C-alpha cells in the first residue's frame, strides 16, 4: 500500500505474517556529487549514536534494550547515480510483544532523525571528533583488503576522472578534513528538508495504524524531483590498462566491460542469465574453465551492475599467469557469443538464479531493497520473475554477449 505523507515523502506498507519481526526502512535520496558521500556517511554515524534525549551510544543502547532488543541503525548506499542515507529498524511485532512497540520505535526514530545532538548550530564536538576518527579508520581498513582495493582501482580506471561514479558511497578519507561540527549541520538540514524520502514497513501490521504513527514524523513538504539513477558513458576507443606492484602473495586481475543492460529493460533478464553463465554462478564458464579445469585462478567471478551498464570480473591469480588468464577469459566470452554452451548448462544456470531469487524472499532486507528500487523507478510490482528467467534462450544470451565491450584491465601484481 502506498501513501503520500507529504510532497516528496512516501510511505510504502507491505503487510505480511511471514516474519515475526517488523522492519522499517527510511531512505533519504539525492544525486551523489563529488563531495557529498563522505559528509552523508559521517552524518549517518552521528545520528545513530547520539541524540538530545540519548546523548551517548550507551544511553541509546539502553533505550533499545527496553524495546525488547529492537535494532535501529543508519548507513549509506547507492543506486546508480543516487546516494541514499538509510535508517533501518527491526523489532518484535506488537502481537508477540503484547504492547504497542511500533509506536515506541517510531518515537525513537523521531528522536534520532529530528533531535540530533546539535547545540548552537553545531554537532557536539567530542562526539563529532570520535565519529570522524572512526569513519577514517573504517575506510582505511576497507582498503587493507587487497581484493577490495583492486576492485576500487578498477573502478577508478573504468570511470573518467570527472565521473561521479568514481566516488564510493561510503566516502573518502581525504574529504574528512573539509568537514566540521558546524558545516555538517547544513548537510543534515539539506537531507532532512530536501531529500526525497521513502518509508517502507514490512510486517504483521495494520496499514492505517502505520500511516497514523509515521505520519507524526515532522517531515516538511519538499520539491518532488525526478531522480535519475541510471548512468551511461561513451565507449573508450581502446581499453585502459594499469599494472600496480605491491607486496602481495596473490595477484588480482580485474577486468571492466561496458554492457548496456539496465534494470528491468528489455535485455535485463537475458543479461542476468548471461552473467550467470559467464561468471556469476558456480555453473559459470569462469568457474568451471578458468578456476577448475585450467587451475589458473583461486577465484574468478563476474558481476553485472544494472544501473551503470558495468560488467566486472574479479580474479585471484599468480602474477605470472596474468596473460594466460586474460586470454582464457576472452575465450569464454567468445564461446558464449558463438553459442558454445550446452542446453543442460544453461538450465543449471537458470535453476541457480531461480533458487537465488526464491531464497531472497526469506530475508526482509532483500524484500525492502527491491521495494526501494521499485519506488525510485516508479515500477509496477515485480511479477513472473521465475518465468522470465526461464524464458531466456541461448540466442538471447549470445546476443547480449556480443554487446559486451572491454574497457579496463587492472592488475595488482606482487612481481616486478
Automatic annotation (TrEMBL):
Any single Pfam family the record assigns to this protein: Peptidase_M16_C
Gene3D superfamilies linked: Metalloenzyme, LuxS/M16 peptidase-like (3.30.830.10)
Domain Peptidase M16 C-terminal positions: 178-353
InterPro entries to which the protein is assigned, alphabetical: Metalloenz_LuxS/M16, MPP/UQCRC_Complex, Peptidase_M16_C
UniProt name for this protein: Pitrilysin family protein
Organism of derivation: Limosilactobacillus pontis
